[in-house]
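User: Design a sequence. Structure:
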């Protein structure tokens, strides 16, 4: 049986963010891309709600020995799940993960209604602004013009900012790969260095000319680094 790989998107991310990873790894792994229920109405803490969702997803699918790959907020969820259930996670992969520090200047843009402004802020996510395609900008713009979704995004961002994981990281025994863009303006390279310092079994690979979402901006390099990590004993 193929090993399961779960791909967790970020706050403004979607399932399409992982297209390059899916195409590369699906012949050898069972790929799962659960849509994180960021917009759900629910009582209690928002980030905790996502962790419980992931727990229920993995349990209901009967998954064991999983590879968890998380970008941005998805990385944060992966960290919290792995800390609680290390026996379920074979490898942890974080790219541009929140949990230590995140540039919250991006948090203002859900409130803006200007398409040009949204394009500028989406482009800010990447090293190469051309990565912010018309389709991607339109998807984010559609979200930001929905008042209910905007409210849930702001609440989720605040929950993530409150949830500081530095104290948990030394207690995560899982072998971890950090894939980071050297030009990440949201979670800068020094954040990656701090993750590597605090996680007992972490290795860090920095990608040049790359921003906050390496799997989108440099999919071939991302896949090569991840493949090498997964092939190690």
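Assistant: Done.
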């Amino acid at each position: 049986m193929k090993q399961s790989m779960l791909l967790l998107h970020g706050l403004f991310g979607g399932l399409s963010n992982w297209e390059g990873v899916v195409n590369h790894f699906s012949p050898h792994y069972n790929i799962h891309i659960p849509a994180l229920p960021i917009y759900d109405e629910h009582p209690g803490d928002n980030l905790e709600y996502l962790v419980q969702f992931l727990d229920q997803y993995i349990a209901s699918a009967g998954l064991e020995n999983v590879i968890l790959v998380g970008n941005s907020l998805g990385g944060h969820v992966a960290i919290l799940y792995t800390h609680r259930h290390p026996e379920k996670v074979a490898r942890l992969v974080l790219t541009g993960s929140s949990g230590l520090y995140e540039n919250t200047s991006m948090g203002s843009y859900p409130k803006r209604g200007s398409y040009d402004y949204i394009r500028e802020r989406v482009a800010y996510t990447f090293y190469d602004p051309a990565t912010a395609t018309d389709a991607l900008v339109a998807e984010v713009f559609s979200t930001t013009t929905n008042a209910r979704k905007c409210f849930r995004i702001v609440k989720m961002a605040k929950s993530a900012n409150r949830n500081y994981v530095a104290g948990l990281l030394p207690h995560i025994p899982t072998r971890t790969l950090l894939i980071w863009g050297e030009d990440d303006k949201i979670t800068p390279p020094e954040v990656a260095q701090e993750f590597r310092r605090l996680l007992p079994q972490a290795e860090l690979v920095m990608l040049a000319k790359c921003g906050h979402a390496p799997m989108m901006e440099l999919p071939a390099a991302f896949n090569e680094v991840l493949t090498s990590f997964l092939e190690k004993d």
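The mean pLDDT is 93. The chain has one domain: 4-103+164-231.
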